[in-house]
Amino acid sequence: GENVEQHPSTLSVQEGDSAVIKCTYSDSASNYFPWYKQELGKGPQLIIDIRSNVGEKKDQRIAVTLNKTAKHFSLHITETQPEDSAVYFCAEAGGSYIPTFGRGTSLIVHP
Amino acid sequence: SAVISQKPSRDICQRGTSLTIQCQVDSQVTMMFWYRQQPGQSLTLIATANQGSEATYESGFVIDKFPISRPNLTFSTLTVSNMSPEDSSIYLCSVRGLREETQYFGPGTRLLVL
């Protein structure tokens, strides 16, 4: 991976609303796209990932979509809860499996 | 997933000194990595810790400043040498299997250099 752009840098929502974080990448060889959640004082935790042969993946309130043609992928969180508040990182990796990370999105869910 | 522990969890150090951070994994893993996360920033790969041989460093990181050891498949250390305030960061240990994609992170070591 070479470069990953992540937006927005900060996202503030009300409890129950949806949150969407978007990432774009430039390396056509990228084929693995994980998302990590980092709570204050902790290390990043993998929450969901998607591979290039899949367009969408869902796990309860979390979903990720991938558009390989446009080289962008997104994280969708529905029915947000205060415990969803954290910094979220997208990443992409190619054949070496070493990920390149985005700059992170600070999600704040207001009760 | 692997359970990763790091010691110390945090430290405050004086400039010019060195700190060694330990990473322990609860299972044998092929790949171990060290990352740096500066305040409010993303994760930057420092090096890949290779068992029984010298670590592979990324551009901008050198062995004299960040010596790494990996004596076996479950343990690695990262030393931050001759520290300056610019070294204040979170240092993260990460692991994965050889042909696996998923990478797991330890809780991090929060370092403040005065």
Helix and strand arrangement:
The complex is a heterodimer of chains A (111) and B (114).
Chain A: E1 4-7, E2 10-14, E3 19-25, E4 32-38, E5 45-51, E6 56-59, E7 62-67, E8 72-77, E9 86-92, E10 100-101, E11 105-110
Parallel strand pairs in A: 2-11
Antiparallel strand pairs in A: 1-3, 3-8, 4-5, 4-9, 6-7, 7-8, 9-10, 9-11
Chain B: E1 4-7, E2 10-13, E3 19-25, E4 31-37, E5 44-49, E6 56-57, E7 68-72, E8 75-80, E9 89-96, E10 104-105, E11 109-113
Parallel strand pairs in B: 2-11
Antiparallel strand pairs in B: 1-3, 3-8, 4-5, 4-9, 5-6, 7-8, 9-10, 9-11
The helix/strand class of chain B is: mainly beta
Helices of chain A, by number, come to 0
Strand content of chain B: over 45%
Q: Largest sheet of chain B at a glance?
A: 7 strands, mixed
Which chains share the greatest interface? Answer: A-B, 20 and 21 residues
Largest sheet: number of strands, sense, barrel closure of chain A: 6 strands, mixed
**Strand residue content of chain A:** over 45%
Pairing-aware structural class of the strands and helices of chain A?
mainly beta
How much helicity do the residues of chain B have?
A: under 10%
Radius of gyration of chain B, Cα only, in angstroms?
13 Å
Silhouette of chain B: globular
Helix and strand pattern of chain B: EEEEEEEEEEE
User: If you compute it from the alpha carbons, what radius of gyration of chain A comes out, rounded to the nearest whole angstrom?
Assistant: 13 Å
Succession of helices and strands of chain A? EEEEEEEEEEE
pLDDT < 50 runs, ≥5 residues of chain B: none
Count of strand segments of chain A: 11
Q: What percent of the residues of chain A sit in helical stretches (DSSP H or I)?
A: under 10%
Total helical segments of chain B: 0
User: What separation lies between the terminal Cα atoms of chain B?
Assistant: 36 Å
